[in-house]
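Re: weekly structure request thread

Next one in the queue (465 aa):
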Amino acid sequence: MKTRLSSATQRLGVSLLSIVAIATAGLSLRLSAAAQSPSSLIAPPPKQAKPKKHPPSPPDSSSHPGISIPITPLGFAPPAAFYLGDRLTQASLNFLSEDSILFTFRIPGLIEREHAPPGQGSSTDTSQDERNIRAVVLSLPSGKVTAEAVWRLHDYSRYLWMLNGDHFLLRDRNLLQMGDASLHLEPFLRFPGPLKSIELDPKQQLLVANTVEPPAPETGEGAASVPSTGPEIASTTPSGSFRLDNPTGSRSENQRLLRILRMADGKVLLFTRLEGAAPHLPIDGEGFYDAIRGNGLSWLISYRTFSGADTPILQVESTCFPGLDALAPGIVLASACTGDAGRKLIALTRDKHRLWDAATPPTWVWPLLVHSGPRLARATLDVTHPIGPMTPLDREDIRGQTVQVYDLATGRVALTVPASPVLDGGGGFALSPSGNRLAVLHAGAIEIFDLPPAPPLPQGPATQP
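Done, posted below.
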């Protein structure tokens, strides 16, 4: 019997303004005491020259990797086929530097069960989701293992994020640790409840954390507990006191919280309590990007500062809420839906320039993005038919996975290659810090492709690195 995969994983057509109205809803979400007046959203965008359009490219059979490192001797085994569609993070491939790779993956074996900490009952017990992750650092071009470790993690969501300067963040339950090229880990931040996801701005100065936490203790205006040693517990207000936006509501259930923290010192700048699922928040500088619905298929892409000011950028056409991703300082990618169930990628700058458009076919679904320097890598599942309410996806419909590398400045496709095994939760490809190398899991190896230097990013007040 075929197992139907939900198509509900696509983005909901709901503006982030209705979910994260963090600057104007009385939630103390201001970087400064005085809120600014929102800019007018009625003025039409300035006329500009029509951007270049780039059709999708098929896999380039003439491209060959410069380096190929077998992964079976490292202990890697492809995930079982029945995991397809669950979008679990089964591995993570990353560049630590131009000449070193961090490869992590699940390894089989018995796991010694841990006793729940005091105060945690079965509802918070995640022992059934424990897994061992092997981490290896590989030197290029030899593939020599220069460091290795085994981490015990407690869920199947994404666990690794790269930082600048050969460092990374490792997530497990309510703890974020910072690691380096020797795989030495130091506690960085500890939250009052499980950390579900994090996001970083392009400059890696701010961190967005989504957590599920128990209700606040009845401590009045007392400050949140801060241990004398180890990582600090992230509070829920910049002042350190635990404050709810709905103090008269029920305090017996867990709550979802969104925080924006400063990476330099872990200080919480902004926070809010969420009623539903945590939104994707494309932060950049002192604000975030949003899409505001207009007439018909029109959506206004806007930049909203944390202090409440709105700056309209440009309008795009989409049959769904266009997904937004901050790729570089001052550059946002809008992923619009087309009438044939395909996608149209539209690169915009905060300075109100439309850089390029690129169409992708309707049979390339579930995109995953990695951006570094002046390039973007985008992986999609290659399926037999478009996904829709009446045409859900079966595992048998997945034919493979394709990775494309784009030049951010022009939208030119620099490389198109296949990836295997199919990792629908991500982790099978990476860009080097310069963007001049792509690493892909394929055919039982880590394949490294060397790319020519990309065109420089456009220069403007909002796009300064």
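The chain has a mean pLDDT of 81. Helices lie at 16-19.
Next request, please.
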